[in-house]
C-alpha cells in the first residue's frame, strides 16, 4: 500500500512524512487483513508519540483519495497463500480423494482440527519470512507461495514425500533437488519413488492454478529452501538469539538478517564460538547454492 501511494503521489514527499505514511498504511492494512486490528492509538504509540491519532486519520484520508478509494489491487502474500490453500483443498476433493484415507491433505476442514490449524500456520510462517526478504523481490509473490506450498505439502505434516524435517530440507536438497531439470532424465529416475509420485500428482495443480510447471520453480525453490532452515513451525518466530546476533553484526538491519538465515551455524552462534569474520565466511559458503 505504501509503494502504491508513493507511485501515485504526484508531489515530492518530505522525508519527515515517511513515518506518518508508513504507520498510516500499516493501520489501514491491518483493518483490511486482521480479524481484530489494533486500536489506532497503538499505532501512534508505536512512533513514541511523534505521530498523533489525528495525523494518522488525516493521512488515511489522503491515502484513500490518492488510491481512488480502490483497494482491490492490494493483493498480499496472505491473500495469495489463502486463495491457493483453498484451491488445493478443492483439488484434493476433485482429484485426490483416493488419498484421503492415507493422508490429511487439507489446510481447511469443515470442523477445524489442531492438525489442520498447524499446517495453515506452518505454511503462513514460511510465506511471511519469504515476504520479508528483500532478495525475494526478484520473484513474484505467486511463485514464492507456490514454492512454500510445494515444500510444506510434500513435508512431514502432509504427504511426507521428502521424509525430512523442515530444517533438514536445505542440506538434503543441496545435494539433489526434488525437481530435476527437464534435460536430465537420469536425475528424475534417481529420485525416491515417493518424490516422483508426489511430483506427478502436484504438478497438475500448479499448472492449472498457478500457471507454472515444476521446472519453472527450480530457481525460486533454490531461494526459498534456504529459509526452511529457520525453526519457525508451531507458529514460532525465528529464534530471538539468532535474530539479535544477526542484528548486531548487520548494524540493526533486521530485514537483511531475516533474508540471510544462519541456522546452519546457529548452535555455535549462541555459544559465541564464531567471530564476525567467521560468520560472514560461513554465510558466504551457505549461500553459494
Short characterization:
This protein is mainly alpha-helical and 289 residues long. It contains 15 helices and no strands.
What this model shows, in words?
With 289 residues, the protein is mostly helical. It has three domains: 2-66, Cyclin A, domain 1 (Orthogonal Bundle), CATH 1.10.472.10; 77-229, no CATH class; 240-286, no CATH class. Helices cover 57% and strands 0% of the residues. The protein has helices spanning 2-8, 18-33, 40-45, 53-66, 77-95, 114-132, 141-153, 169-175, 185-190, 193-210, 218-224, 240-249, 254-259, 266-270, 276-286. The longest helix is centred in the N-terminal third of the chain and has 19 residues, at 77-95. It is elongated, with a radius of gyration of 21 Å. The protein starts with a helix and ends with a helix.
Annotate the secondary structure layout.
Layout: H1 2-8, H2 18-33, H3 40-45, H4 53-66, H5 77-95, H6 114-132, H7 141-153, H8 169-175, H9 185-190, H10 193-210, H11 218-224, H12 240-249, H13 254-259, H14 266-270, H15 276-286
List keywords for this structure.
Cyclin A, domain 1; elongated; 15 helices; mainly alpha; disordered C terminus
Number of continuous helical runs: 15
Largest sheet: none
Total individual domains: 3
Mean pLDDT: 77
Alpha-beta classification? mainly alpha
Q: What does the oligomeric state look like here?
A: single chain
Q: Estimate percent helicity.
A: 55-70%
| Apparent shape | elongated
First and last CA, distance: 33 Å
Beta-strand residue percentage: under 5%
Q: Report the count of strand segments.
A: 0
Our Rg estimate from Cα atoms comes to: 21 Å
Low-confidence stretches: 237-289
Q: Which series of helices and strands comes N to C?
A: HHHHHHHHHHHHHHH
